[in-house]
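To assess whether ligand presence alters the predicted conformation, the chain was also submitted together with S-adenosylmethionine. Input:
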Amino acid sequence: MLASIGSPPACAPEAGQFVAPTAPESGAPWMKLLTDHVLYWRARKAWSQQYYNDVFQFIAKRAPDLQQPLRIVEVGTAFGVSALLARLTHGGLANYLLQRLPRAQLYAVDPFLSGYDPSDRHAHAMAAIASKLGLNKTELSVAWASGMAYDLTARHGSCRYRLFHMRSQDAAPFLGAAFPKASVDVAFIDGLHTYEGTKADAEAYWPLVAPGGVLIFNDYGGPRSFAGMTFPGVRRAVDEFAASRAKNVSVGAPGKPPGLSNAFIAKTRRETAAGPNADSYCDAGLGCHF
Ligand SMILES: C[S@@+](CC[C@H](N)C(=O)[O-])C[C@H]1O[C@@H](n2cnc3c(N)ncnc32)[C@H](O)[C@@H]1O
């Protein structure tokens, strides 16, 4: 299956970017992790049914020209797994969006460190996979990054998919330096789901968002909890952040973009890091000019 994916096109890596292994190494831990677990779970038990299409529809509504080279950041990329969901074949959110937005560039940020939050089931699932494969925490992290980077780079090209194998707080300065000022169209925040983690991510990634762009927060909560998990710290941090910026929080629902448990905060079209009404303009969709 992997052999048919082909080699990714050359694209100069950004500072801090994790570079994918160039070829499958037979027997490498990352290849086994990729084939036995990441692709397996991504194909069968993804979060995709819950919100992926709603996130896509949300982006498509704000940027109707799907050929736009949108810049998307995903904080916490995992692969999309829940043991409770039905069988699907969409893969994780990164793969889903890259498939449907043909010119989007996706910057994924994740340290892949198991046990990062005892109240998050995915953290336990990662630990179980490490134990099954006989990998320690660091080995699992490197293997996971290698597998994800190899697979998604090979599928979508090294210019469209870039992995920052680090914690969100460490990645923000790299991304800020790599991008033109305030030029991220969508930042999907789905990493550390504690109050402190969400608050820090909101603060760190808001300045990167373009006028007319959005921060989307997963697991904000909504009409019902997701897979029995609730993250009250996410809601508290998002509400406080919005209040401090005099922003509205808008919440999705099943079939209501950006989807179940997702909340978003939009940056006004004339707002820049320098403050509102600075000299910038945005045309229809998300494209902004300075
Ligand atoms: C719920 S999963 C992400 C699911 C993915 N966004 C999707 O929709 O398919 C949460 C991810 O956050 C990652 N994570 C935990 N702490 C993090 C941090 N400090 N920075 C970035 N990612 C983090 C975990 O490794 C895990 O992969």
